[in-house]
Amino acid sequence: MTIETANIAAGRSRTNDPEATKRNIIEVATKEFAENGLSGARIDEIAAKTKFSKRMIYYYFGDKDGLYLKVLEDCYSRVRATEAALNLEGLSPLEALKTLVGFTFDHHTSNEAFIRLVMIENIHHADYIARSPVIQQLNVTAIDAIRKLYERGVAEGSFRPGLDAIELHWQISALCFFNVSNRATFSAIFKRDLGTSESLARLKEAVVDMIVRYVKAD
Fold first, then answer.
1. Looking at the UniProt feature table, which residue ranges are given for the DNA-binding region (predicted)?
2. What stretch of H or E contains 172?
3. pTM of the complete model
4. CA-CA distance, 133 to 140, in Å (whole number)?
5. Residue 99 CB: number of other CB atoms within 10 A?
């Protein structure tokens, strides 16, 4: 069997599995949107890289906007699913908070496409996220998890009272997000590579420590 024949056969096999087809398209589209933005991404490029036709992409996702929204939903779904698997309720509030912050830092560090997509969506004033009940519900669940964690800590006296769960989520996200979104500019301006394993380890430790100091009871 030639390479060309094998590729054709693989393509036919994938079309017989709609979920695998959609997964492949979303994976390629995630990279395309993250690299080029919503306006710069091209369905032609996505089709070429997946070896599926534009017609099939439109069949599954409607149009480019529909595909972009599915990419956003997929990114948020994956991060929230991994958070849910952390078993925070099985840890003490302090250890659960450290685990959550450390996970968020590691996730953002290893998922630059997610960071770029969030930045792109902010350029669009969150128009697409606002249309998605999927993303809205996912983030309600994330805030509920933080709220429960925080309330457990307050109840046992390890966390100080009076903090807001959404604001706490904001602060965790901000410290972990900036590490990726502004790493290139900081490294260039200050002539120091903040992306080395040593730098990232120090930054992660500092971020966890800052959040713990902020939340911990005196």
1. 42-61
2. helix 165-181
3. 0.87
4. 10
5. 17
100 shares its domain with 70: yes
Contact yes or no for 34/117 (Cβ under 8 A): yes
Q: Which domain holds residue 49?
A: 1-62
CA distance 114 to 23: 16
Between the CA atoms of 196, 199, 201 and 206, what dihedral angle is there, to the nearest 10 degrees? -160
- Total domains in the chain come to 2
Asked if residue 117 and residue 179 are part of one domain, the reply reads yes
Q: Which of 52, 54, 51 is nearest to 42 (CA)?
A: 54
CATH code of the domain containing 30: 1.10.10.60
Q: Are 159 and 217 in contact (CB under 8 A)?
A: yes
Q: Give tens-digit pLDDT for 57-101.
A: 999 999 999 999 999 999 999 999 998 889 899 999 999 999 999
* 88 and 38 part of one domain: no
